[in-house]
Task: structure prediction
Amino acid sequence: MINTLYLPEIREMLALNDEAGLREFCTALHPARTAEFMEGLSAEEAFVVLQHAEPLVREELFSYFDHDKQVAIVESDDRLRVAELVADLPPDDRVDLLQDVKAHVVNELLPLLPMEERRDYLRLRAYPEDTAGAVMTTEFAKLSEALSAREALEELGKQAGQLETIYYLYIVDDTDHLRGVVSTRQLVSAMGKSTTTLGDLMEADVVTVNAVDDQEDVAKTVAHYDLLAVPVVDAERVLVGIITHDDVLDVLREEATEDAHRIAAVNPLEESYMRTPLLTLSWKRGIWLGVLFFGALLTAFALQQYENDLDEITWLVVFIPLVISSGGNTGSQSATLIITALATGDIKLGDWIRVVLRELIQGIVLGALLGLLGFLAAFLLHLAPDFQASLIIPVTLMLVVVCGTLLGSTLPLLFHRLRLDPAMMSNPFVAGIIDILGIIVFMQVARWML
Amino acid sequence: MINTLYLPEIREMLALNDEAGLREFCTALHPARTAEFMEGLSAEEAFVVLQHAEPLVREELFSYFDHDKQVAIVESDDRLRVAELVADLPPDDRVDLLQDVKAHVVNELLPLLPMEERRDYLRLRAYPEDTAGAVMTTEFAKLSEALSAREALEELGKQAGQLETIYYLYIVDDTDHLRGVVSTRQLVSAMGKSTTTLGDLMEADVVTVNAVDDQEDVAKTVAHYDLLAVPVVDAERVLVGIITHDDVLDVLREEATEDAHRIAAVNPLEESYMRTPLLTLSWKRGIWLGVLFFGALLTAFALQQYENDLDEITWLVVFIPLVISSGGNTGSQSATLIITALATGDIKLGDWIRVVLRELIQGIVLGALLGLLGFLAAFLLHLAPDFQASLIIPVTLMLVVVCGTLLGSTLPLLFHRLRLDPAMMSNPFVAGIIDILGIIVFMQVARWML
Result:
């Protein structure tokens, strides 16, 4: 819902070029709220309003705009002012943003950026997507271990405006190799003792990640150690950047969405649903639907083998969808439970025997439940011709549901063992395999019992 | 995988009661790593090792143990020493932990806790699960606005050891009403100016959450404003606690897992997969499987209506699983895409017309693809008797796939509109509805074309 409360006032100030009013508007509230009130403005209008904010506030306001508006503003004509804004952005956000800006605009903006920002941009852009290098920022506090705690605090005070986090100071040698880390918490505690140096305070056993590490592993590391930020080093342990807690939050949300998509057999989207072109979206779904189609085709062949039986005992047909959906649903539940437990580290590969046993027991319990329901439906609702025929349904359901829990749990574990993403063993995939099995089980049970 | 590298050495030190060695072991590495090396120890052994660590390190080491070991340690016999450990824990973790400890142990420990910790525990325990109050901690920096920046820093230095975060100071009046917030970043920047008070620095427009707010909304707020911590207030705006970024990470992971479970028709687990009793797990799955079973029963009744047709045209039967799984898979994809996009805020209710149009177009593209595959399979593989009969399959698949995308997108949107969790419109649910539709469409198309 767009907040239109102040739109008329802002537009009037823009029309009258009321500089004092616009300046006041930019500073009165928390930037996140101010940005909300600006949602209804066009990119051009918003850019004019931004000109009335101080550089620090301007950058923050801009960071709360939605991505499309940010891109539209960067692509607007006033290259000089845009370059000023882009130069002020945090290095990691700058790379993310310019990725979606037209290439010729980026090429025209680059020469207008200060040299340091330009180099920074080109270096960060080189890291592959989804790696630590692509998420990290290069603005962090880097100090020498000879400084005293008080000197360090004062130095930090001077730099605070430009840094993305001031809560860890990284201690490096002359060639930028990481030597240790000091938290602002330690610094504040040691303020009284004037002789304490950063070297005395620093923790040398630093948790680091490598610039080419997968962003999901980075997020897990930060969550495991409860860090506010994690330093990123290259192969020679040179400190190249840091990843802060807010970026980790974004990574975690992104990865959870990717997993959910994989579980539903959609190739993860690189952009949001609304921004992904329809053909790309159709392709990411179609490729899996095609694969699943060939699986489903096998059910048709399986059924063909039993055509003569079905000709004779036509009432069996009405139970086909019920049998295969019961197996498929149970399998999806198991697969999802195991995939999420593997993702959160709740289950490890070594637990596989316990997991399979647990699923077997659940399969028996759930199979008994559905079998009972199935028998009652077949017998009492006269879907099957007589008592003995009705017994086919509970026997089949029990077997199919147990197959569902066993396959639904072992297939993701197997994928994990093969170092593939267990979420690739998606629910429709598991369900597809159980469909085929379900039909074979159903027909064999029917043959055997009639 | 349990790290057994140092287990023999630790056990030897324990056997010899080598106090110096154990003390050294507790401090040499980052506590998270030390805790890893202790994974192979029994709860009793680990508790003895903990006795050799300083209180602060002991508490941190303990926090890295897995939950079961923590519970076992708290339930061990030495109530006095356990009470000492429990008193040192962060208030929010203490509540989470004691929740799983046997009630009589908790009752015996409570009188041994210092009065403040005991009151704190009883107050926090009263908040319902999944609310801000249940996640928050009560250890934070609360100062008066009259203090200067330097005084505040010094005060912070003294308290730093007991606080969970020192990165925001909260300014309250005499009756603990929240007046404003100052970040340590601002404090450090203002260190030079001795006359600046907290009142001058503080931001009065503070983002807060209410103690009874849902934890998922709290996580969204923190992520939206990129906060390190958010203050929790009661209905009278009295500051009762704060929620820090690491707890928000945990909430986000928990909620993502819950959504994934709901999407697969499993009632979200309160504990991890491995710790949930098998009967509880079976119940959380069985209740949905039962509901879905009654849906599937409708497919049986639908098929019964067409029994005469199926008797005459038996080849149609072999396509039943293929038709309904194609519709179900497409529907699951749409439902998951829409549910995740709603969860991340990428789609809002107002977008529903665009969303449905996008899904319609994708339905046509995907229906054409699967229809082509279906026709080729029916005609070239002689699953259908002739050319005209083969055409039934593509027409049916096109209609079923379009139904899948439309239902898969509109049902979660509808649930969202009704202020229900869109993830409740789970994939098996959507697939179940499409199963019934698919059979009716299939049979009607066949009647019409033959």
Observations:
- The beta strands of chain A are 141-143, 168-172, 178-183, 209-210, 229-233, 239-244.
- The two ends of chain A are 62 Å apart (CA to CA).
- Chain A has three domains: 7-126, 141-244, 278-449.
